[in-house]
Amino acid sequence: MTFFSDLQAALDALSRVVGEDLDGIAVPSAVRRLPDEAVVEVIAQASVLLRGAESLRIAASGTVAERSTRDAGHDGLAQKRGHRSPVSLIQDLTGTRRADAAKQVRLGEALAAGIRDTRDDASGPDTAEPTGGVADAACAAPTSPPTHQRPWHAVLGDGLMTGALTSAQHDAIFRGLGEPPVPVLTTEGAAGPDATPEDATAHELSAQQITNQEFAAAWASAATQLIDEAAVRTVEELASAARCIRDMLDPVGAERRFEERFEARAFRTWIDRDGTRRGSFTFDDEGGAWIQTVIDSALRPRRGGPRFVDPEEKKRADELATDPRTNDQLAYDLVIDVLRAGAVAEADAVFSTRQPGVRIIATAAAHRESLESRPAVAVLEDTDASLPGWLIAQHMCDAGARTATLDAEGNPLDLGREARLYTSKQRLALAVRDGGCRWTGCDRPASYCEAHHIDPYAEGGRTDIDRGILLCRFHHMQLHHGGWRITRRGTDDFLLHAPDGSEPIALPIRLARRYAFGDLQPPPRRFRPAA
């Protein structure tokens, strides 16, 4: 179907479900009378219309920006209508906030960039879109790069215009991945001992072009894979995964970003005009991870964490759940208690359950790089946020390490033993593999999850890691009480089966984990041309 026929089909469906010839005031009452399935269909079809209309508006916003440049002066499209900038014109036309209008223009400019590059070089072949992993894309980079090629983010524009991405998802991936780094090449002597200065310059430019294309291919491959994830991930998860993948693809740039956030760390207090003392933190990576772990460890029962088996833990969790304080008040009292108690506090006195700790997942390669003081990237167990490699060695000194042997898909190769409940080591392996609740669209971290036997233990199911999966408390209960089930063939993806018998939904491991498990760290070595 064409772009507008899709929109027309959605509009026709809404007319059939809600009713034709309704004025705007009558629509809410008409929707309230609909059965559940019809209400869901209204939202789904309306979303199709909104996506299509928004992508069309983004494309038009990019054209407005093209025709409203500084060089156009007062003859620019926005300027002729009395506006200083395209953002101002879009804000006036749409009635949105300035930040939303700026986002429309930013996405429109990215969309237009891909169109311009292919239009300007219409006679030549486009650069093939990467279809495999990042390493494959790098190896397949052409040795004689064309003059023009589509920018790496053109696949995001395609996804936006075909409905595979919403504007929010496009923006999250686009901003999360950022621009590929500009490599610093060392080509001295690479053109040969008898080469003229002109030959050396030509060789350097050719090497620069090839390397830039390899970086662009890696970023385009990551963008393509994130588009595939968009159907089962929240916008926040996509943004987090994009940032983590960017850091794994560019550990040198990641090291610089880690250092910049460390230098920007700050804490300040002030008294507002009502006499209330307030405070503000700007965290570095390690400090932010630590404070979040402290709060999560203490408030997990209140926020829907796993049900406790130990009677004493369950009792304390029940007391916390019925505590009249709000979550923000509990978090405040907790931080104050930690500051007062300091390092001598007992875990039970402050945290109610276990001492919180930051768990870092690092590949063997990243560990080696960190020991050699080379740029490397690790990820947090709960959030997949990236951390500098030097923290690996530091935390090994403070807290030690456990080794988990995994295959390229993250499946642990040491499959545990028969027991009714998963052991702490098995749960650690599940946390490393799954990264949190595997239910589609859920973003609960591993520490909030329970281990589910996909083969019921009462029916002979084994408590092995490859037959277990992490689910948050809500989705674990939903599965058992709602008629859902999860199956798996060998070490393939887990499949979620709905009660209505519809097509099962694959529950893949988070994309950032797959990058980490595959040890995909192309820059700076794999993308550096040979001398």
Task: Explain the overall architecture.
The longest helix has 33 residues, at 197-229. The chain has 21 helices and ten strands. The protein has helices at residues 3-18, 27-32, 36-66, 77-80, 86-94, 98-120, 134-139, 154-162, 167-177, 197-229, 235-249, 251-263, 285-299, 311-321, 327-341, 347-351, 364-371, 390-399, 424-434, 473-482, 511-517, and strands spanning 266-271, 277-282, 360-361, 377-380, 386-388, 449-453, 468-472, 485-487, 494-497, 505-507. Among the domains are: 3-258, no CATH class; 424-508, no CATH class. Strands 3-4-5 form a three-stranded antiparallel beta sheet, with helices on both faces. It is mainly alpha-helical and 531 residues long.
List keywords for this structure.
21 helices; mainly alpha; globular; 3-stranded antiparallel sheet; disordered C terminus; 531 residues
The proportion of strand residues reads 5-15%
- Give the terminus-to-terminus CA distance: 51 Å
Low-confidence stretches: 118-147, 187-193, 347-355, 414-419, 519-531
Structural class: mainly alpha
| Sheet having the most strands | 3 strands, antiparallel
Could you tell me the mean pLDDT? 77
**Helical stretch tally:** 21
**What's the β-strand tally?**
10
The percentage helix is 40-55%
Strand order of the largest sheet: 3-4-5
Q: Which geometry do the CA atoms define?
A: globular
Rg is 27 Å
Provide a compact summary of the structure.
The protein is mostly helical and 531 residues long.
